[in-house]
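Hey, resending since the last one bounced:
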Amino acid sequence: MTGGKTREMVDRFGRRVEYLRISVTDKCNLRCVYCMPEEGLPWLKKDQLLTYEEIWTIVEIMAPLGLRRVRLTGGEPLVRKDLPRLVDLIASVPGIQDLAVSTNGVLLKDFAQPLKEAGATRVNISLDSFREDRVDALARRKGTFSKVLEGLQAAERAGLEPVKINVVLIRGKNDDEIVDFAEATRARPWHVRFIEVMPTSANLGVSANEFFSCQEAMGRLRELGDLEPVDGPEGNGPATYYRFPGARGTVGVITPMSHNFCDDCNRLRLTADGQLRPCLFGVQQTNLRDPLRAGADLLPLIEETLRIKPERHDLVQGSDAGSGGLIALSQTGG
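The structure tokens again:
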């Protein structure tokens, strides 16, 4: 944004924003130990949520400013009714080049093909273990593992590619499967990304006592030899990727705690209740919902959000001091 006229979304540190993560709901059908309290949260009321048409309008406003990539998140986005309709609306916006969905995979079996037909390009699927008992225990829901596998297969059949698999590392719970996940990328077109736990008030025990860094994970994988740095699959995120020679997939690491990657942050976040957030964490946000419903101009509000975008997050392992009071990642879209 230059010369008093809105032309592109650039923050005060010179970072160009072209990526918007949109949470469509704060609800989730799982209660993963690193994400949400077992008892859940006080959910947003229906009239607090942005409608699909309101989300579409915000994307239409931001696309001429340089928005090119959109990801739909939650909570679990597939628990919101008729998500493919929103995908179709956003896919119709000129300038949007990439439209992805992050999901726990439980409902994906029935939604993969409709999402693809509506205009979704790819999916990220959470799968923290190859063992049924572990997945069900981490998700605090029996039957999770089998449903995620069905969703993963459905995504591959539908052509929602590249399929990225997110593995949150938890010491003593799944760190002994790091090599197994990496080896799976040799034969399968999977892009496995190991992710460090980010602290919120609901997961401080995990963050403080079961944190496992991606640096440790890579140390184990280097013992296998032959891993080569690569650009990785198309996407928007901060992962660093590696590949075994001849492998169909890649191995990636996302290091919000051990190696801050905020210098290259290219995103804003839109919460389910219409708050435009410059960072996943912290307290900074701008209410777009109420001005939108009042017919106000949103451009000055988008400019203000870019102005308050922090240089970096202030997370501290085992503490919720830098989380901005978050109980669960689902509150702001993960």
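Residues 1-6 have pLDDT under 50 and may be disordered.

Sorry for the duplicate.
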